[in-house]
Write the structure tokens for this entry.
Amino acid sequence: MARPAVALCLTLALIVAACGGDEKASTSTPVAGKAVACDPSSLPLQTPGKLTVGTDKPAYPPYFEKDDPTNGHGFESAVAYAIARELGFDKADVKWTVVPFNSSYAPGPKRFDFDINQISITPQRAKRVDFSQPYFTAPQAVVALKGSPAADAHRLGDLAQAKLGVQVGTTSLDAVTSSIKPAYQPQVFNDSNDTVRALKGGRVEAIVVDLPTAFYLTAAQVPQAKIVGQFAAPGGDRWGLLLEKGSKLTNCVNKALAKLSSSGELERLRSQWMGGDAAPPLR
């Protein structure tokens, strides 16, 4: 959704999914910075010899576990460390820094080497920052309070009269507007915590988030809610690592991702941390 979005290596099943963004997703390959030698001694880093990785706080499952990106548990933490290994860094040489979701894609210099935080690749963002090739693609999901009219929806049109909520700065807002076409303006909340509290408190009937987040919410945070169904985000919702515009690291990160993809490691990590049962489709 974004994010950015709320999100467990759920030992219960999760599904392939994704979120986080505020504009329509791009279908073009992100532009990479000028190539450099991809070894730690040659890379232009924030801190020489250290790879600085950004993400938001709190850091939610299934992307991170125990709100601790440094433990290597959770899909995005595991992916970040796998990329670091491909670039020649030991785990001890990876530094994490807190980067709020909405500020990550703001124009200007960055204080991280790359950011991993369920950030959708979109044309507008790509004007201001670099994106890696996608490491994940997924649908949106509707989470509704049990017993509410929205919980009985079978089609997107059934949600048009529902009181919906989304997190600011996420592709979920575009998805609601373009796909659900609600009769009432959805309520927009500052972060994932506010979005979840609004659902728990009944201020909204349903919220729209990425599918892995939806599984986590209904399993751990809002058991009085259910996943109504999933639907494709407009143009697709692909997540990429975010880097400073024109970063010389972009090509190296893409090479690392390509190796992880061709070796099957990226799929293994996806399956380990986010594999599972699908939600019913909404059309």
User: Anything to note?
Assistant: The chain has eight helices and twelve strands. Residues 196 and 221 are 8 Å apart (CA to CA). Confidence is low (pLDDT under 50) at residues 1-35.
